[in-house]
Design brief:
- This protein is elongated.
- Strands 2-3-4-6-8 form a five-stranded mixed sheet, covered by helices on one side. Strands 7-9-10 form a three-stranded mixed sheet.
- Helix content is 43%, strand content 15%.
- A hairpin with a 3-residue loop joins β2 and β3.
- It is of the alpha/beta class.
């Protein structure tokens, strides 16, 4: 077993990426988009991460979060959990893990929106507390971690130790994110030149579920405490939102009104529009 400090140094040289990034030429540089908007609360609009995951992407995300929090503090408003769209073929293991930890700390909601989240991007996706990739046509792909061709002489024994340390680090990270450690082992079953896309059932089996269970329990406790209700009443109100506020999850106002009052939203008033042009109604 390699000491933890040594493992971190080992990870610096490792990359998990899609076949599109096997060569530096043609690789798309990582891009972070988004702007801070403040109304009743502050949020990051059009938040997206695309291209290769690298150190610059991590830095740009951190800077955007700092700007949002500074504006929120200045206005005395809350800062909404960031909602980000991912579309990445992979990148650096080290930077993906760093970004995934930021996602967990800031309680990110991640979407893949018809794009792809492959290789190292899966480490980032694992860090989100809500994962909507499966609902929006996004692909979640895994394959074996690989190392770039070394310029110096390759020491087989050192390579084996490095690879074992890297896998240990991946397992520890998945455990930290409440994801099955065996996902690291599953990556080894697919060659670096190929990609295995996970079905929704496979994502569930590996713990890449929609809602992180620990954060979901934390959210339940926080919201129920703020509303001054017990768990049974909290679940009753949740069921009302599921009945009346969906399938339009963007209707946040409906959700908050139901959770605050415990009552179903009023039915819309009957329409007074003249519909005679459509014919005589059937009795």
């Amino acid at each position: 077993m390699i000491p933890k400090n040594s493992r971190k140094e080992v990870l610096v040289s490792w990359t998990v990426a899609s076949i599109l990034m096997s060569s530096c030429s043609g690789a798309l540089a990582g891009v972070v988009t988004g702007s801070v908007r403040c109304n009743f609360s502050c949020a990051i609009d059009n938040f997206g991460i695309s291209g290769a995951i690298d150190e610059k992407v991590v830095t740009d995300v951190e800077r955007l979060l700092v700007r949002a929090k500074e504006r929120s503090a200045k206005r005395g408003t809350s800062f909404a959990h960031p909602w980000v769209k991912l579309n990445s073929p992979g990148g650096s293991v080290r930077d993906a893990i760093a970004l995934g930890r930021i996602f967990r700390k800031e309680r990110f909601i991640a979407d893949v929106g018809g794009g792809q989240c492959d290789s190292a991007c899966v480490l980032v996706y694992a860090g989100a507390v809500v994962r909507y990739g499966r609902f929006t046509g996004g692909k979640i792909g895994i394959h074996q971690p690989y190392r770039e061709i070394p310029k110096d002489e390759l020491d087989p024994d050192a390579f084996r130790r490095e690879y074992a340390a890297m896998l240990d680090e991946l397992r520890a990270y998945f455990h930290e994110m409440n994801v099955a450690e065996r996902l690291a082992n599953e990556m080894l079953k697919t060659s670096p030149r190929e990609m295995r896309y996970l079905s929704p059932a496979e994502q569930d089996s590996f713990g890449l579920v929609i809602f992180d269970p620990v954060d979901q329990e934390l959210s339940t406790l926080e919201e129920a405490k703020e509303l001054g209700i017990d768990r049974a009443e909290y679940y009753r109100r949740q069921n009302v939102t599921l009945k009346y506020c969906y399938p339009h999850p963007e209707d946040v106002l409906c959700y908050h009104n139901v959770m605050a009052t415990g009552r179903a939203p009023p039915a819309p008033p009957p329409s007074n529009e003249d519909l005679s042009r459509f014919g005589t109604p059937v009795e």
